[in-house]
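Name: Branched-chain-amino-acid aminotransferase
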Amino acid sequence: MGGMAIPESSVIWFDGALVPWQEARVHVLTHALHYGTGVLEGTRVFDTADGPMVFRLDEHLARLDRSARMLRIELPYRQDELAAATVALVAANGHRECYLRHLAFLGYGSMGLDMRHSPTSVSIASWEWPAYLPAGRGLRLTTSSWRRTDPNSVPPAAKATGPYLNSALARREATEAGYDEALLLAPDGTVSECSSENVFAVRGGVLRTTPASAGALEGITQDTVLTLARDLGVEVRVEPLLRSDLYAADELFVSGTAAGVVPVASLDNRELPSGEGELTKLLGRAYRAAVLGEDARYRHWLTPVHSS
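Structure predicted for Branched-chain-amino-acid aminotransferase:
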């Protein structure tokens, strides 16, 4: 995601213990390394006036659990145990703001496609990672030649490691062609999502985004934006979109945990009418207020990190 080097932290939570960063290792015959049998979450910690806070941790861990169940990977830890481990990790690393990566994967134990005989390992890593999409200007998107897979091939609601090869190929194609990000289409030609963000279109004051049936992940930041928009009185629709719907939009933006809310300046070399539009700005401000604990209505989305 973004290709930036990872700044190392002190420790990683790995299978129930905090271990030094460089000692969080796996065997080369780890099942997930060969077959993509893993699920993951990306979560952020924000530096608020009341100290570091994990944003929507419960929702991220619930999705991790759902993803694991869809792939029939048995998690050896409860969600409350993983939440406590997450907070302990951030405190141990002394982060004020950071990115979190939760990962559950089938480890060393057997080879072959049969998933039943490999144990599940779980890790949580935290590091200081700024938003990786370009700041200070709108994004330049291009429609990728790669498409999302059919929803009956891999469940799009599962945030799994294997399908991210599709995203990696699309992102590389886009960046090597001089664009910031790739837009992927569903098998039927409707809009799916970007390589690692959901996409939103605004036209006539109506906010529209794509459904999971288009192969798009049900994003937690996507859900956050939809909630903020509804609370602001904006009409929202989750429905199929054509590429021409994006070309004709008044505003486009993308959302994701790593990215935040980022405006789009152009798609396939078609400039948007006004760059960052008014609704995009409004939702971007509302999102920042929510993650920083400045809007009391959304304080329940924040989990405090207590220093040890």
